[in-house]
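Researcher: Checking consistency across runs. Here is Isocitrate dehydrogenase again:
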Amino acid sequence: MTQTITVIRGDGIGPEIMDATLHVLDAMNLGLQYEFADAGLVALEKHGELLPQATMDSIRKNRIALKSPLTTPVGEGFSSINVELRKRFDLYANVRPAKSFPNTKSRFPSGVDLITVRENTEGAYIGEGQALSEDGEVATLTQKITRRGSERIVRYAFELARKTGRKKVTVVHKANILKSTSGLFLKTARAVATEYPDIECNEMIVDNTCMQLVMRPEQFDIIVTTNLFGDIISDLCAGLVGGLGLAPGANIGTDAAIFEAVHGTAPDIAGQGKANPCALLLGAAQMLDHLGMPEKATKLREAIIATLEAKDNLTPDLGGTGTTQSFAEAIAKRATA
């Protein structure tokens, strides 16, 4: 069976890490076909817009996209292309795993294996109702949380726990202070949790969560939280295990899903073959899970770990002298062994 996915090669180092990722996926003979589409600076130069209609149509048709990092130019179009994609396709669940990997510059070379599930479509991060007074002295922002949005993200987290065999969901909030918005999220989460008696549920205030993550990250399994808190926590978790070069992300909705590397375009090293493709490869592994190929996803993750353990052609950020492509070739060799 073949599956067509939309591929967005991205800006800066995006094309390099995408080529490396597709090399590994092709070597694994997964039956994937690619429909290439443009977004970001490349799209602006070629088509005069950051998100061409053809790209949107491709994602809508294929329902699955693999995306490299994009640049949103200052003063051009959307405040963020990523936020716009989430809004257009109602990609309400942002799923960010953080796992310890060998031979990385990490505070925790072992013991961390958690997932942050972040609500992706509402809350302060969306930037609704932004206004600045005429004298430039007062800025305001509307924060909106809905019962529907809270319920579906918390339910997603509990279903993910069941599906992956995880045992605990931590609901992260600030309901002690933000009694209306965060309070509604917490109240809704408590109601959903009663439907999953097989999964342990605990609650934690966001500031304590950040402290606990730094001190004892092994206590966490799945974290579910609102948009802005999730954005901060997921990057904190990436910092625990070696940085954004090892941080994949999935944006999942009912009708579409986009998988990505969450780091930036790194234009300072673009075209030099120095970029680490692991984040996008791990995003591709999330995609394979979503496509019903969990064995292949596991094989890919195991190949990445084995290559890191062997220090085989690691990129400079990992302490090696390999290139983006040679690192990918070493991973592909193990993924097909």
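Researcher: Does this match what you'd expect to see?
Model: One thing to look at in this run: The domain at 1-93+245-337 is CATH 3.40.718.10 (Isopropylmalate Dehydrogenase).
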